[in-house]
Amino acid sequence: MYAMERQELVGRLLSQEGRVVVVDLAARFGVTTETVRRDLALLEEAGMLRRVHGGAVATDRGSTVEIPVSERLLRRGDAKLAIGARAAQVLESGFRGSVYLDAGTTTAAVAAALPAHLASSGGSAEIVTHSMTIAHDLAGSDLGLTVIGGRVRGLTAAAVGAETVASIAHLRPDVAFVGTNGLSEDFGLSTPDSDEAAVKAAIIAAARRVVVVTDSEKFGAELLVRFAGLSDIDVLVSDSAPPAALREALDRADSEVWVA
């Protein structure tokens, strides 16, 4: 395989998976790891990727990159709907209790699935959220709804700040559905913004049971601010199984993994 062919394939893999690993590419292409590193160096110079330890990530996966919620709504929609429907099943038949919904497009998919799931299983719930988008979507449903206030970030349409964190600290929801921008075996759960991280950490500290919902694009990503470790996850719901190293770390943390 010529260098140009390898580099084009690396570009396609990055667009699909967001991350590539040097040793995996070397085995796939039948070349040395040094050859792969030279390919990655050339692609980095061309602005097509960013090299990290052991491989490379797409340029939109820098530690402070955050895609607006309006754009995220258009990405991986089918996967998120599947995750939302699967995650709703965490609430067993006849569930009656409180549910906290974190901000984000994947948690919004959970919100979309909850009314029908609860109605069909004879359950009910009091929903709490700081997401203006989720609050709007659930305002017309039969579920109870409490909205946590604070300063609203336009990028995520979510309340953040000391007031928001303090309000969450006074709660004890039975189940919390939490989203993340990154999930890795070494760094845990992370997000680009410190205010968002503080809110997510408060939700996790408050909840009796934590369900993390994320599409597989987030596997291996490490953003600027860590807000929780793998041991804080009771159940992880995603559209595909985590890679081996992450799955082993989740097993050690005693976290369940559900695939939608």
Condensed summary:
This protein has 260 residues and is of the alpha/beta class. Helix content is 40%, strand content 22%. It has helices spanning 3-17, 22-29, 33-45, 69-72, 77-88, 105-120, 132-138, 162-169, 194-206, 244-252; strands at residues 19-21, 50-52, 55-57, 96-101, 124-129, 144-147, 151-153, 158-160, 175-178, 182-184, 188-191, 210-213, 225-228, 235-238, 256-259.
Q: What does the secondary structure layout of this molecule look like, with pairings?
A:
Layout (H helix, E strand, L loop, with lengths): L2 H15 L1 E3 H8 L3 H13 L4 E3 L2 E3 L11 H4 L4 H12 L7 E6 L3 H16 L3 E6 L2 H7 L5 E4 L3 E3 L4 E3 L1 H8 L5 E4 L3 E3 L3 E4 L2 H13 L3 E4 L11 E4 L6 E4 L5 H9 L3 E4 L1
Helix pairs in contact: 2-3, 5-6, 6-7, 8-9
Rg: 19 Å
Return the CATH topology of the largest domain.
Rossmann fold
What is the count of distinct domains? Answer: 2
In CATH's first tier, which class of the largest domain applies? Alpha Beta
- Portion of residues in beta strands equals 15-25%
Gap between N and C termini: 36 Å
Enumerate the strands of the largest sheet in spatial order, edge to edge or round the barrel: 6-5-4-9-12-14-15
What structural class results from the helix and strand content?
alpha/beta
Structure explained in plain terms:
With 260 residues, the protein is of the alpha/beta class. It has two domains: 59 residues, Arc Repressor Mutant, subunit A (Orthogonal Bundle), CATH 1.10.10.10; 191 residues, Rossmann fold. Helix content is 40%, strand content 22%. It contains ten helices and 15 strands. The strands form four sheets. A seven-stranded parallel β-sheet has the order 6-5-4-9-12-14-15, sandwiched between helices. A three-stranded antiparallel β-sheet has the order 1-3-2. It has a three-stranded antiparallel β-sheet with strand order 10-11-13, covered by helices on one side. Helix 10 links the parallel strand 14 and strand 15. Helix 2 packs across helix 3, helix 5 packs across helix 6 and helix 6 packs parallel to helix 7. The longest helix is centred in the middle third of the chain and has 16 residues. The chain starts with a helix and ends with a strand. The mean pLDDT is 90.
